[in-house]
Structures are given as C-alpha cells and as structure tokens.
C-alpha cells in the first residue's frame, strides 16, 4: 500500500484531483479512485504512465518503496 500512498501524495503535490488525473489518462475517475483505495492493482506500464502524467520520477518512487521494505525486513529480524 505504500506505493499507492506515494502515488496519491505525488498527485496531490502536483495539484491534481482524481478527476484531473483520470481525464489526463483517458480513464474514468472511478478507475483512479479504485487504484488509490487499493481496490485495483496497477501494472508496471500503468505505473510509468501515472509517473509521466503526474510528473514524478518512477525510479525515485521505487527506491523509496524499496527502502521502506528493507527497513521492515530488518525490524522483523531483530
């Protein structure tokens, strides 16, 4: 879910509503809402499309998610 939260945060930072994003993607607002609520998974191609449309670097986001996962894994071992 952290990936989804980052996407939501990036969309908001860009000053976009769900409707704005949906229109830019050529999709319905309900699709964006489903992604953001965790009710619909996204694949890599959709993730890259979201990054381009919202205006964030997908590599940075993947690094952030990876760092969070690494920290969680380390905490479980202790």
From TrEMBL:
SUPFAM superfamilies in UniProt: lambda repressor-like DNA-binding domains
Pfam families referenced in this protein's UniProt entry, alphabetically: HTH_3
Span of domain HTH cro/C1-type: 7-61
Protein name stated in the entry: HTH-type transcriptional regulator/antitoxin HipB
Superkingdom classification of source: Bacteria
């Amino acid at each position: 879910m952290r990936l989804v939260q980052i996407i939501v945060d990036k969309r908001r930072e860009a000053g976009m509503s769900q409707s704005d994003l949906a229109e830019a993607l050529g999709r319905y607002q309900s699709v964006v809402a489903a992604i953001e609520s965790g009710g619909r998974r996204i694949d890599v191609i959709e993730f890259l499309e979201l990054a381009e449309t919202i205006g964030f670097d997908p590599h940075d986001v993947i690094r952030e998610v990876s760092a969070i996962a690494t920290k969680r894994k380390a905490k479980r071992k202790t």
